[in-house]
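Dear colleagues,

As part of the handover before I leave the project, I'm documenting each prediction I ran so the next person doesn't have to rerun anything. This entry is a single chain, and its sequence is reproduced below.
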Amino acid sequence: IHNLRLRTRHYLRAYIAELTGMPVAQDEHRALIESCMNGDVDLASNQMREHVLHAGKAVIDYVGEHYKTGK
């Protein structure tokens, strides 16, 4: 996981900066923290999974689009 994070960090930062992905991520983080604080392990687990999948797809789409356009 550490190596994956290192290799994708710059793409994630670019996605957040250019596509305003941060507000969505912040909302997801807040919901996840709330679930953790409420002790709802199942909900927190599902939220984390969805968050990681959503962020991963967004980064893949971003990289794919910029690869096509050469940006």
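The longest helix spans residues 41-69. The two ends are 27 Å apart (CA to CA).

All the best with the project,
I.
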